[in-house]
Amino acid sequence: MNIVESQNVEKVYGENENQVHALHNISLKVVEGEFAAIVGTSGSGKSTLLHLIGGLDYPTKGKIFVKKKKSEICPEKTYDISQKKYWICISELQFDAGTECI
Question: Using one digit for the tens of pLDDT, what is the confidence trace for 39-69?
């Protein structure tokens, strides 16, 4: 079973000549029991994709499903995330040149 699935997801911020294309045609599947990492350079859309999957924002185009349910923002509802079974962990690691990592 797919825990997370995105289909041709795009996210555009701004309007007209001020548009920024954060995501373009992103499709992925994460199967139950699978560990996945979203990696890339700064500004490549990692956090944007996680915000869309987590329901904190909505795609300009495409669809996102979490446990086969279409992810949509419902501003009139308040969610209690402590009752959710699946979590998204965001880890941002930055290292300076010459820093050792163990």
Answer: 888 889 999 998 888 888 889 999 988 877 6
Do the beta carbons of residue 65 and residue 71 sit within 8 Å? Answer: yes
User: Phi and psi for 42 in degrees, rounded to 5?
Assistant: -60, 130
More confident residue, 100 or 54: 54
Cβ proximity of 28 and 77 under 8 Å: no
Distance between CA atoms of residues 96 and 59, nearest Å: 34
DSSP character string of 1-65: -EEEEEEEEEEEES-GGG-EEEEEEEEEEEETT-------STTSSHHHHHHHHTTSS--SEEEEE
Which structure tokens are listed for 13?
């911020």
- Order across the sheet with 20-31: list the strands: 20-31, 2-13, 61-66, 69-70
